[in-house]
Each structure stands twice: as C-alpha cells, then as structure tokens.
Specification:
Strand content: 5-15%
Order of helices and strands: EHEHEEHEHHHEHEHEHHHEHEH
Oligomer: single chain
Helix content: 40-55%
Number of helices: 13
Distance between the termini: 12 Å
C-alpha cells in the first residue's frame, strides 16, 4: 500500500500564515524521510484557515529540501490558466527535480464568487472547456509545437511531469480515462461512493503516452493517534473547522481541541457533525490500517493520499509518522 499526503497548509487559531507554510516544509521533509510516495499542495484562494494559494512557489522551495518524494499541486485549477504557461512552470520544476513532479489538474474555483471574478473574466466558460484545456496541456507536455504559434513549452525536462486528473464525479473520471491519465478521487470532500466512479474510470480507460494501465488513488481525511480515544479527541478540531467552513460563521483557523468540543456541543443539529465524521478515518494506527485495507479491497486502489487537520503541529506530524510506521514496517517484514 502506498501512502501520500495532500497538504492544505492549515492555519491554527492565532497563527500567522507564514508559520503554516514553514510547517508545510517540515511536513514534506518528514514525509520524504518516512517513505511517503507523494506530497501534493492544494491551491485555495481567500479560504479562511488555509495558507496554500500558490503551490508552484512552495513546491520549488520544498523540492530543494527533499530527496526523492514526488511533488505536485493538488490541484492546478486549470480554468484560471493558459495550458502553455502551466506546462512551462511544471516543465521547469521537472527539469530541476528529475522524475519527481506530478501535475494534479482540477476544474474547481478554489474559492468564492469574488475569487472567480478576480482571477478570471470567464471562469465558468473555461470550466466547461476543461477537456480541451487538458488536451492542450498534454500537447505541450509532450513537447509538441503549437499548430497556431509554433511554440513549445520550454524547458524540455529529462522526464516530463506526470499529469493527474482530480475529481469527485464520473465526469472527471471519464476525462482521466479518455486521455489515459491517472485519477485521484477526493473522498474527503465527497458524499459519493467512489466504487462506481472508479469502476467507470477503469473500464473506460484508454492507453495514451506512457500510461498503459489505469492508476487511481483515494484522498481521505485521517486523524491518527496512539489510541482510538486520543484520535477522537483530536478529531474535534477538524470537525469544527469543516462545520465552520460549511456554515460560513466567520471563524479563522483550527480551534484548540477544548474550544472545538465546546463549539460542536453547542450546535443545534448533530446531523451535520455526523455527515462530516462519516468521511473521516479516526483512530489508532492499527484501526486506520484496517480501515484503509478494507477500502483498498472495496475500491481496488493501491494508494491513499492523506489529509490531516490537527491543531498541534507536533501531533499532526505524529499522525503521519505513526501510520507510516504501522503500514511500512508490516509490509517490509512480510
């Protein structure tokens, strides 16, 4: 089983965004040391509690301080950008970090209506053109000339970056399948059962480029601690932040556990909490391992990308470390 990380650079209550970004660097260095496969950074804009708005900047900085872990955006919000420029940016990164660069591609706005209108004059129209944007990007990543301008997306890296499609729907799965791309399903942000969507992806997959077989990963929200009870305590902060984000109640950053528990206890409806909690994996390393193996069997995926929102940075690092030791140590001994 492969483990990877999606980092959204969560900001703790009272913390400066700069410190959240510094912590992202430390997390990536630990993941590299522990043997995680990938480290992706999200792209969000003006979203309270998250510091990651320019993953391309952070990834170059992180790449210089890590050795082998694959790096990529999770995701480039392609409707905002020209594919030619995206290819230039990630070809440059791939030239500096040979055979270590992915490009996660998504069509979401990554923020509210004000963000859409500020970053783009025609985001919705471009979102409808997502298949054409992906096709154009693949053209430049293959270092082919533009039929109109004759341009290539220099520099040409020794190994091209690997594009992935990110999504939570059949539409995104079929887009990945059509162009023979690997697919990342965002289970942590979806109420849909991924089984049918991943089956659709695998059965519709068409071989292209160097990708001969379908490859999929599942992104899941994980809170891991030494015991199930400790993990349940820590999970209150992630639950509170998710509820606050959905309700737009003006809070900024991850609350400490005791404040998060109070916030949740004062909610008039437990159903919101229950719905969010269903999408999370909470428990000890052994508990999480069993849950992941069950999901692996059910959905036929070999890789899980983990998102972990824990208010203490030390306990957040420990969450990833405990799970890596539990899974990687067992596999090394078997």
């Amino acid at each position: 089983m492969k483990l990877s990380i999606l980092d959204q650079s969560p900001i703790r209550m009272g913390q400066e965004p700069q410190q959240a970004l510094v912590e992202s660097v430390e997390l990536a260095k630990l993941a590299d040391k522990l043997g995680y496969t990938r480290y992706w950074m999200s792209e969000h804009h003006d979203l309270k509690g998250l510091a990651s708005s320019a993953p391309e900047v952070m990834l170059s900085y992180i790449g210089a301080q890590t050795k082998k872990i694959r790096l990529g955006p999770g995701a480039v919000l392609l409707p905002y950008y020209k594919p030619y420029k995206v290819a230039e940016v990630y070809n440059t990164l791939a030239a500096l970090l040979p055979d270590r660069v992915d490009i996660g591609l998504g069509r979401a706005p990554g923020g509210g209506t004000d963000v859409m209108t500020t970053l783009s004059d025609n985001f919705l129209q471009q979102a409808f053109k997502m298949p054409a944007l992906v096709e154009e990007l693949l053209h430049f990543l293959n270092y082919k000339k533009s039929a109109v301008t004759g341009l290539k997306a220099a520099p040409l890296p020794v190994v091209s970056p690997v594009p992935w499609i990110l999504g939570t729907s059949k539409k995104s799965a079929l887009l990945a399948a059509k162009y023979g791309l690997p697919y990342a399903f965002g289970q942590f942000m979806s109420n849909k059962d991924p089984e049918e969507i991943l089956h659709e992806y695998r059965t519709s997959f068409q071989s292209h480029r160097g990708q001969q077989h379908p490859e999929a990963l599942l992104t899941v929200s994980v809170i891991c601690a030494e015991t199930d009870e400790k993990a349940k305590e820590l999970a209150h902060s992630a639950l509170a932040w998710s509820i606050q984000s959905e309700r737009g109640d003006g809070k900024v950053g991850l609350l400490p556990v005791d404040e998060a528990k109070q916030y949740i206890d004062e909610l008039p409806d437990d159903q919101v909490k229950a719905d969010i909690e269903k999408k999370m994996l909470i428990g000890s390393p052994t508990t999480i391992k069993h849950k992941l193996k069950s999901m692996q069997d059910a959905y036929q995926v070999d890789e899980f990308m983990l998102v972990s929102f824990i208010p203490s940075f030390e306990e957040r690092l420990q969450s990833y470390e405990l799970l890596a030791h539990e899974i990687f140590t067992e596999e090394a001994s078997s």
